[in-house]
Amino acid sequence: MKKKCVIIGTDLRLSYFHTAISSDLETKLIATMTWDDELQASIDQLEPHILFLPIHPLKMECPFILPKSCEVLFVGKQNEEIKQEIAVKDIQVFSYLEDEQYIWDNANLTAEGFINYFYTHEKQAIYNKQFIITGYGRVGKRLAHALHHLGAKVVISVRSEHQLFEAKSYGYDIETLDNVLVKQKSKSAYLINTIPSRWLENTHAACFKYVFDLASNPGCLLDSDENIPTNYALATSLPGMYFPRDAGLLIAQSVQNHLSLLKGEKSSVERS
After folding, report:
1. Is the fold of 4-99+243-263 the same as that of 129-236?
2. Res 270: pLDDT
3. Where is the S-adenosyl-L-homocysteine hydrolase NAD binding domain (predicted)?
């Protein structure tokens, strides 16, 4: 008998995720981003063994209470209500956004998504353009690799000395984050931010031809709620925007791998 799995969320990626795991689980997709009395009642009635929460936090309009039937909870970005409920329940909890394979594969989709976004937004070639990438984590590394192979001039800018010289060893130009603004008098470079914290003065966006912020909301601007620069774009969730099927299958692979580990079996999900 198949385990029951309820998937919550409105992201288009989840419809592909739903289809991918439906051969192994008895699934139901509930398209909402609000946890309210109606959703709580539906969850209790369905009695799922597995509950999948969306990538972005749910809006809470009533207490978050897991059903007694729930054995495994998959979480994206959590809010306090979810954290508090997890703390008092004896269940398996898996954060798919922290799955290392998922992170790297999703970084590849983000890099390819940015290229699509740039072409659509700027209607220019990447070849021979200068891109300053702030941050050299997974997304920064995959972006640098992709842009370099399209003929761009890539500069990596971070505070970490370790990451600076790692980037230099791969042939990229480097600049410390503290100095990156000083050398942008010509306004000829595009800035791609991947650092998930507010560090850039809004007025300093004018130092760049355009600022593409790929970090999670609220992005890198210090006062991002007002006075948004005209040359600034918060471009998040690029995999879901351009490749929802591929991105949904990545989530499916992560979930199935984890369930298989719990059962001591190999994953049955294949990316195609």
Report:
1. yes
2. 47
3. 126-183
Residue type, 224: S
| Average pLDDT, integer, range 12-39 | 96
Task: State the pLDDT at residue 265.
Answer: 55
Which residues are CB-neighbours of 22 under 8 A, at least 6 positions away? none
Burial class (CB in 10 A: 0-12, 13-18, 19+), 16: buried
DSSP tag of 22? T
CATH number of 129-236: 3.40.50.720
> Rounded CA gap, 250 and 26, in Å?
19
**29 residue type, one letter:** L
* Angle separating helix axes 100-122 and 244-263, nearest 10 degrees: 180
* Residue type, position 30, single letter: I
CATH number for the domain formed by residue range(s) 4-99+243-263: 3.40.50.720
Q: What is the tens place of the pLDDT at every residue in 231-244?
A: 999 999 999 999 99
Q: Which residue has the tokens 């509950």?
A: 51
Q: For residue 77, give the DSSP letter.
A: S
